[in-house]
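In the previous chapter we treated chains in isolation. Here, by contrast, the input contains four separate entities that must be folded as one system, with a combined length of 1136 residues.
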Amino acid sequence: MTAVLLLSCPDQRGVVAATAEFIAAHDGNIVHAEQHVDPGADGSGAVFFQRVEFELEGFGLDRDEIVDAFAPIAQRLGMHVDLRFSDVPTPTAIMASKQPHCLYDLLTRWRSGELPMDLRVIVSNHPDHAAFAAHMGVPYLHLPVTPDTKAEQEVALLAALDEHGVELVVMARYMQILGDRFVAARPIINIHHSFLPAFVGANPYRQAYDRGVKLIGATAHYATADLDEGPIIEQDTVHVTHRDDVQRLTARGRDLETIVLARAVRAHLEHRVLVHGRKTVVFS
Amino acid sequence: MTAVLLLSCPDQRGVVAATAEFIAAHDGNIVHAEQHVDPGADGSGAVFFQRVEFELEGFGLDRDEIVDAFAPIAQRLGMHVDLRFSDVPTPTAIMASKQPHCLYDLLTRWRSGELPMDLRVIVSNHPDHAAFAAHMGVPYLHLPVTPDTKAEQEVALLAALDEHGVELVVMARYMQILGDRFVAARPIINIHHSFLPAFVGANPYRQAYDRGVKLIGATAHYATADLDEGPIIEQDTVHVTHRDDVQRLTARGRDLETIVLARAVRAHLEHRVLVHGRKTVVFS
Amino acid sequence: MTAVLLLSCPDQRGVVAATAEFIAAHDGNIVHAEQHVDPGADGSGAVFFQRVEFELEGFGLDRDEIVDAFAPIAQRLGMHVDLRFSDVPTPTAIMASKQPHCLYDLLTRWRSGELPMDLRVIVSNHPDHAAFAAHMGVPYLHLPVTPDTKAEQEVALLAALDEHGVELVVMARYMQILGDRFVAARPIINIHHSFLPAFVGANPYRQAYDRGVKLIGATAHYATADLDEGPIIEQDTVHVTHRDDVQRLTARGRDLETIVLARAVRAHLEHRVLVHGRKTVVFS
Amino acid sequence: MTAVLLLSCPDQRGVVAATAEFIAAHDGNIVHAEQHVDPGADGSGAVFFQRVEFELEGFGLDRDEIVDAFAPIAQRLGMHVDLRFSDVPTPTAIMASKQPHCLYDLLTRWRSGELPMDLRVIVSNHPDHAAFAAHMGVPYLHLPVTPDTKAEQEVALLAALDEHGVELVVMARYMQILGDRFVAARPIINIHHSFLPAFVGANPYRQAYDRGVKLIGATAHYATADLDEGPIIEQDTVHVTHRDDVQRLTARGRDLETIVLARAVRAHLEHRVLVHGRKTVVFS
């Protein structure tokens, strides 16, 4: 069992030493440490980011004492601190529409132990995946949407996520646009089926076909109020040829979508992602 | 030694048989045949594309008799016919600005026999590569450009290409925008340092850095009057991370640019590319 | 609906024309044709391979007349002929041991219509996947193996495959070695979790870790009596680093295994694979 | 200008803090720090590796005082210490045989400033590249080899490397096997044209063709007395098909070789590689 500190602050001398000393002073053993300095842009100063993971066994502080004990250092350096424990998986909801590939893939990975998430509920605007959710033993919330009920559905959705104590939402090809209140409530990871910023919006495989590109892509990003403009976590592409019509592009893209989304979700669940403006720092 | 027929026509029954019979009737041996049917869009009909390569040894017609002998078939089927010979490399000019990587890479490949081109001249708006061109034994034409001399320079450039009998222009990171007359004169392969259609225009690595993408790309395409909108021949991408600043993106991108451009140039020189509207068919 | 001819014969003049003429003579419309000539080795002659796909609608012969009508041509040219129809999916069995990822992935693709297979039965030496098979509506045959019952189990297995009319076996991480009789009975596609020929045999991820490689791979191949020596259909690799211990290599490899196996199975089911000695021709 | 500390020692508590405190105590600013713990095998204990890069400007010690000041910490923790400066490029020799692609590629990268090496001499058993070396302004040493003069040539080679103060040798497709004394003298980076451990030894593209693999690879590694068994620094692969004969595999492999070798050389020159037994730790 380990603790993970995700830290960010204005870049300054001694910042690496301060945290390392704190952990050493309490007999901690660091198993992973990685840092990054973003130079900043347009006169804003450089920002320091760090992920430090240390063993809880033998550590001189109880879990609930760590934040308070670290507070003087954090205050002095102007640090934003996020503390996580490897044995406390993040309460998560997965949302999907009709297409099953990303949803099924995440469930299979979760079941095999590959994704450390505390999966609380699956939400869909379609009833299609209820039997599979039952087979997997996960509550399934069917919330249909029509243009008339959109606002209501979002209220019900937010209430359900609150009720289930959800801290992370994964949109596994959920095809409804969500309101600002929803986007602001908690981190949402979305998968878009193109290499953003190309082919923003609807039907990216059709757009890709019409443009005659020689590769297609997928992008996992945090959802923000501006559609497809949120911080990118993970992207990948695959070669295609003139033989690939829209249907074949769609089929080939499915593999990309599932893998890119799974990588991004895993990075988030392993507390390896820090957001910086509209960019991310993803530690290895 | 082989002959290559590049054919396109409205899709219709018997079109494969007609060409195969013609070659068989003259004792030809087909060493490579590949076809593609584009379904067409918006009511335009399906279009058939084919590349047929056959041995000249033992073929019953002389080189200069083939087009005439094939004409009745071509006429009946409404075919566009392009006939090439593997031992007649395409007269080519390479254009470059200050950056050497694509130019040097093409020259090295040409020298090693990997690119079947008849390299007639290197043109640059800078004098930097003259010594290397001399070392390689290729004429070097230094045509400086200023805002005032742009029109004149283009006239001189076109005259030089005509004089050298150039049939293909490769823009190996040539950073000047060219006029419609130049673009219309002969095929031009350009390399753009992004995965088009993302990051059109200037400074794509800066654009990529500002957007926080997790991969960068390169695109080789035929130049058209609309900048960066021409038919794409080849694209590729490579993963990058938050550690890669604009300078490192630029360095990593150089490898992509050279390889993507070289692949596209080779495909063209091997007569494997057919243009269809704003798309390409690239046979393997 | 289309028919697919998979052809192979000694390379000779007129072979492309003969087939094209046959199809044209019966008013067939070729929608895809691809060919390959293997130069042969050690004095064996060149071999011609072709895949021709044509529309059944409007074709002048009934399905069961095609082989007979084509027989004179096949005989004259010494052709091996395999005729398939796009609306007759191949009767298939999937075999798996404890690990679910390849099995679940194939089932998800099959359910979504991506894999044109007539899935007759799932066979496993473990009971673990019975509930999921039931959920998917596929018969599940649990055939436990012990060293003492190995021979018996294989007899039961062969009988079950015969009874279900199985023409293709997919070993989706089935970890038992099978006898020569089993291997000879019908095509078997196996997935090996390394880039063959590296890391043959047991525990390839452990072998990869011990060697300190910077990439891991997966290989889908036809099973033969010589373990891991059969004709390769598809391979891929992914980068790894010094941070990846055996457990992480195994986790990262799972994605590769599922995708590489799925690609190979799809190629086979779409009748795009021809075996030539210990190699394959895989048309696009 | 920065200093780089490459550290390794038995894993123990406080090791990260000790180095960070040392740098902070002398007013150093850490710009990059990365660490790795290898768990060890077969009862050997865990080993800690770290790369720390800090700014020399404002640092409280002169360059030649750093090692002595750090010695007490290094001694207490049993550390192996390697100190490098970003403005002191490594004295390097490149060796090549007939094939030019890796040599030319490295020279082009060096000339463009991408590779921070102090290139002292090019050595070849062929005279072919003398003109290009002269064009680039690098001394060229032509040392022909015959079976009779092999021992002599190696003596001359070692003397030349000593005379030029060479600390790193890059074998850019140098096709002669070298003796133990040569291998032991200084680090040697070699490029092998396969994904090791597959296709060890001669003619790997021929071996790959005969096996019918669907991808080819390249491996950059430190040379050791056991041919092709040294610690791997970098590997990559590219897809190939049944169409690729040995000649085409060789041509496609050239791109891989140049890129994989260049990446490995750059990692070494940027002091990002630590050797651990027959493996490497390559920091990002």
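Residues 246-269 of chain D form the longest helix (24 residues). The first strand of chain D starts at residue 2 and ends at 10. Compare these points with the single-chain example from earlier in the chapter.
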